[in-house]
Specification:
This protein is an alpha/beta fold. Helix content is 47%, strand content 20%. It is built from 21 helices and 22 strands. The strands form four sheets. It has an eight-stranded mixed barrel with strand order 13-14-16-17-18-19-20-21, surrounded by four helices.
């Protein structure tokens, strides 16, 4: 049995922590005098305590505490209907409120009142009128003591992760929220494969080092997805239950894929070799996952089912994961299989570009093409982009695919030119994942070997641009300096700022196909198309309509002055040879 090391967090450190967390701590005040509450809030706000809730109705205090879970309560004693003593006594009935520190603020200053308040669990006592400096100092010290107590009570001493007690408390809240708001969450349970053998062979001290490092990696994997702006992990909680058992709580997830990404990220981190006492140890991990409320509505059921899924993963050989639900497990297995196949497909050259013609609205003459990525699977044939592109985006493989597409499009342009065929511009889509500082250099290398800058168009989405508009302006200007024309794709589906749209060095605006469906009805979508075309022309941009499927849509666009269009009315995307034969004339 491994002996836990002493906690490293000392009381002096928790005082610094309390000061640093002033903006994080939620302070609650219960007082029947509104003016006193406003004064105290002003004091605390100036000291950096920005999160403040209050009530002048003592009977509502417990309900507010249970819902908001403050870090500290400031409590008056003499109040009508329900006294501060009554509230203190009631707080001790609820396990989730028993350990919230209470500072009594009251004008009653006799020894009996103080003793009674302290006997009922008050942490400190402060007489009214309150001195601002004394209040802030006592609040800081109270929070510091609570931070230290919480560390001992709620955190694992080896890893610094939450312990089982805190995890179960947060899971209880997450289950309650899921029921109240109709949302979904996930519990992920991890276990290190063959840890028992390592512990027995190298001793408990070495085992603790592995456990400590595993905890650090779990925390790092969670933070890595937070930096990647994964909404599902903003409130993620990592925990150690004991031994080599770890759990992660995702209070809210939108779909099974979000849970899968978290599991896979942690498993990858845990599989990196460990350096312990000069030895390199290879330790994989297994995981089980449940989604609540689908796989359980009470704590014990959720944790039990996560354990069952974990055991299934270990029985399958370890190093992988299983969902408790067969439906979700099948989806996760398919996604992981697809990602592995994608990696091999890049190495094997199974990708190719198809080309869809762009035509002038007036005259229907070919004026360009959009290059679209296709995966020609050796067994399945053409895999639909809607199936593999989201997986490539989630796994980060889209950056390599996007770079390949740039080189392939430039090479194809050179090949057509060398064959004496008509030269038309080719548009290549850029993924948001490619919108990084090294993008201009990647594009420069792609066009450098072929000299096709004048015939290359790059399409960026609104979401790529508006995620960081200032960075977008800089990147697009660098690309523009290479002699490339730029387009904003799927316009109207995001939240573009017109002020930034004017600053972007764009040449073309593409109307998303979703707007064309309402053209026949002359409804709101038709009005939006009119506005977009007028706005784009006002900014000096040419307009391309995507997804044109009928003559009626084409005629509507012609009357509104749309410049170019593409869609199944003219042609579906075609392999390079078929596109050239159908649309490129010999020069």
């Amino acid at each position: 049995m491994n002996q836990p090391v002493e906690p490293k967090l000392q009381l002096s450190q928790t005082q610094d922590l309390a000061a640093a967390m002033a903006g994080e701590a939620l302070v609650m005040m219960v007082d029947d005098e509104e003016l006193v509450i406003e004064l105290i809030q002003a004091y605390l706000d100036s000291a950096g305590y920005k999160r403040f809730i209050s009530t002048t109705e003592p009977r509502k205090a417990l309900e507010l505490m249970l819902r908001e879970r403050p870090q500290v309560v400031l409590l008056d004693i003499k109040m009508p209907g329900m006294s501060g003593f009554d509230i203190l006594e009631a707080m001790r009935v609820y396990p989730s409120l028993q350990h919230i520190p209470v500072i009594v603020l009251t004008s009653i200053d006799d020894p009996e009142t103080k003793l009674k308040a302290l006997g009922l669990g008050a942490s400190d006592f402060l007489a009214k009128p309150v001195d601002e400096s004394e209040l802030v100092l006592r609040l800081r010290n109270t929070l510091a003591a609570k931070a230290y107590q919480d560390y001992l009570a709620y955190y694992d001493r080896i890893t610094g992760l939450a312990n089982r007690h805190r995890f179960m408390s947060e899971l209880e809240r997450a289950l309650r929220d899921a029921h109240a708001h109709g949302c979904m969450g996930a519990v992920l349970e991890f276990d290190l494969d063959r840890f028992k053998q390592i512990n027995e062979a190298l001793g408990p001290a070495s085992g603790d080092r592995v456990i400590k490092e595993a905890g650090r990696r779990i925390r790092g994997a969670i933070h890595g997805l937070v930096r990647a702006d994964e909404p599902a992990v903003q409130q993620a909680l990592g925990a150690r239950f004991g031994g080599d058992e770890f759990s992660v709580l995702l209070p809210t997830v939108s779909n099974v894929e979000q849970a899968s990404r978290m599991v896979e990220s942690i498993l990858r981190a845990l599989a990196v070799p460990y350096q312990v006492d000069g030895k390199e140890l290879h330790v994989s991990a297994s995981a089980g996952a449940v989604l609540f409320p689908a796989d359980g509505v009470v704590m014990d059921e959720v944790v039990r089912n996560a354990g069952a899924a974990l055991r299934e993963a270990k029985q399958a050989g370890g190093g992988g994961y299983r969902f408790y639900s067969k439906e979700f497990n099948d989806k996760a297995v398919h996604r992981l299989s697809l990602e592995n196949q994608l990696r091999k497909a890049i190495e094997r050259g199974e990708f190719e570009l198809f080309y869809q013609p762009k035509l002038r609205v007036e005259g229907r003459s070919v004026c360009g093409a959009e290059a679209l990525l296709r995966w020609r699977h050796p067994q399945r044939g053409i895999v639909p982009p809607g199936e593999f592109v989201p997986v490539a985006e989630d796994s980060g493989l889209i950056a390599a695919l996007g770079e390949w597409a740039l080189h392939a499009a430039c090479s194809q342009l050179r090949e057509w030119h060398g064959a004496g065929l008509q030269r038309v511009p080719v548009s290549v889509n850029l993924s948001p994942r490619q919108f990084e500082p090294r993008l201009p250099e990647i594009v420069r290398q792609a066009i450098g070997a072929t000299g096709q800058a004048g015939y290359l168009r790059l399409e960026v989405t609104e979401s790529s641009v508006m995620a960081d508009p200032q960075k977008a302006v800089t990147l697009l200007r660098e690309l523009k300096a290479l002699g490339i024309k730029l387009a904003i794709d799927d316009f109207g589906t995001g939240y573009s700022s017109l002020s930034y749209l004017q600053k972007l060095p764009l040449d073309e605006l593409k109307i998303d196909r979703s707007f064309l469906s309402g053209i026949r009805a002359e409804g709101r979508d038709a009005v939006l198309v009119d506005v977009i075309i007028a706005m784009a022309h006002g900014l000096g941009l040419s307009v391309v309509a995507e997804g044109v499927e009928s003559e009626a849509e084409l005629e509507y666009l012609r009357k509104r002055g749309c410049d170019e269009c593409q869609g199944f009315l003219f042609s579906k995307p075609l392999p390079a040879a078929d596109f050239a034969a159908a649309f490129l004339k010999r020069g």
